[in-house]
Design a protein that fits this description.
single chain, alpha/beta, D-Maltodextrin-Binding Protein, domain 2, 2 domains, globular
């Protein structure tokens, strides 16, 4: 009797596992069956928000469900990433994550609310964009060399804003300070939009930020571009020299945005999301729109993004430590 009871229990357990497998498979096959949230870990109006909102209509069309952009700013994107890391692993909550949040913050924050490498799964690398140093037109500097000369004449008096402590723009500024051996005052803001607004208003002398968010203000003359932290010049600003061209070869900082979901999200769901993003990024009209805003499309596979994330994590760790950058 006991043997029979044990056999019955075992049989029911196997049936339960099988049923779970069927449910899992069906769930993956019917994905998405409702709207999908794309969390952006920064306030609206910043460069990563711009890219998210540019892509969401095309993504909605491709997936057959609305893709809703959800801004959850704070702690250099960590608050938004934490929300995704702790969300249900079903593909209905994803984050458009940046270099700083994914590969720099883990080296700077003494305690993270999640494990960046264990709790988030890569879907696709989306775009890359360089950092551009811009200043208020009233500042008497035509290039980075001029700014360095001013900073040496007035140590600690030239203030440059960033989009937040611990982000790539902040680290780019620290690299500039290290390489040029100057004392520039770092002024962190909660996101790119307020940082740029304060630079245009003259409350700070300049800002270093992703190219898409400063591009229209440089073109309108409300901000003046001094140097690009990239390996080559941007076709959008062919007259703006790179930091390397201006004698600062180590000041290279190219930001990127990529999609991640909660770990343990079914591979079939990740594959569907990856396909939708690749179709969106390869769409000729979308490519043109992104490139026109200084964001280069970077379609690929989850495995390629995983390898890229690992390389970026290992790259920025020593730089973050050597720079002495601190999160405020």
């Amino acid at each position: 009797m006991k043997k029979s009871t044990r056999a019955l229990v075992a049989q029911r357990a196997l049936l339960a596992v099988a049923a779970t497998g069927v449910t899992f498979s069906v769930s993956a096959q019917t994905y998405p069956a409702k709207p999908v949230r794309m969390i952006v870990g920064f306030p609206a109006g910043g460069p990563i928000d711009i890219v998210a909102r540019m892509m969401s209509p095309k993504l909605s069309e491709t997936l057959g469900q609305q893709v809703v952009v959800d801004n959850r700013g704070g702690a250099n994107g960590i608050i938004g990433a934490d929300a995704v890391a702790k969300s249900a692993p079903d593909g209905y909550t994803m984050i458009l994550i940046s270099t700083g949040t994914a590969t720099i913050s883990p080296h700077l924050y003494p305690k993270m609310p999640y494990d960046a490498q264990r709790d988030l799964a890569p879907v696709v690398l989306v775009t890359s964009t360089p950092e551009l140093l811009v200043v208020h037109p009233s500042l008497p500097a035509k290039n980075v060399k001029d700014l360095v000369a001013l900073a040496r004449a007035k140590p600690g008096e030239i203030n440059i804003a960033s989009t937040g402590s611990g982000g790539l723009p902040h680290l780019a500024l620290e690299l500039l300070k290290m390489e040029a051996k100057v004392n520039l005052l770092h002024v962190p803001f909660n996101g790119a939009a307020p940082a740029v607004a304060n630079a245009m208003g003259g409350q700070v002398m300049g800002v270093i930020a992703d190219l898409p968010v400063v591009q229209p203000h440089v073109q309108s003359g409300r901000l003046k571009a001094l140097g690009l932290a990239a390996p080559k010049r941007s076709p959008l600003f062919p007259d703006v020299a790179t930091m390397t061209e201006q004698g600062l070869p180590k000041v290279e900082a190219v930001n990127w945005y990529g999609i991640q979901v909660a770990a343990k999200t079914p591979p079939e769901v990740i594959a569907k999301l990856n396909e939708a993003f690749n179709r969106t990024l390869n769409d000729p009209d979308m490519r043109q729109k992104l490139i026109a805003r200084g964001a280069d499309p970077m379609p690929g596979t989850p495995a390629q993004f995983a390898a890229f994330l690992k390389a970026e994590y290992e790259k920025w760790g020593p730089i973050a430590k050597a720079s002495g950058a601190k999160v405020d």
